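Sequence only, no structure available. Ideas?
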Amino acid sequence: MPLPFLTADGVSEADDDGDEALAHDDHDRWRRPYRPGPWRVAISAVLLLLSAFMLLATMIIAFAGTWGGASVCLVAALCVVGSAVQLLRAGVWVSRTGLRRVGFFGTRSIAWSEIAELRTVQQPVRWLGLPRTVQGQALTVAARDGAELPVLLTDHNADFLSRAEAFDRAADTVGAWADEYRPVSA
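Reply:
I predicted one. Tokens follow.
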């Protein structure tokens, strides 16, 4: 079985046909226009490590023959795993149909036709989602019907804390999606 050789410029010998679409070329799928930040990944990793210990404790309790305690420990471990996964999913997602803000407890989708404008503003923002507020930048969305919409991104959340240039790139990318798919109002 021959193995394909990848050259320095990223061209593979196996890539003879260039008509295949890449996974990131599908604009109908929901995608996050930025990478999860180090704080979000670190918190999720700690939660997954905690769940590993909880699952180990579940196994020990089950081998001891206490099925009630093992089932409670298993449910708690699965809740911690679900929390870690949901924490990684949280953020702003875009597709051809609109904008989706995924939170820890809820998700809200907004069609591009319902959005009047996206803008970056200076305002008090929550630090890492905690009640403490600091002065920072936030990407906000204004609806056409005047409805109050939540802040999409801040430069002090778990994705962009101490990464101002990544916040600017993410805000520009979401703005580019809005410019491409938002209908032009007359």
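The mean pLDDT is 85.
Hope that gets you unstuck.
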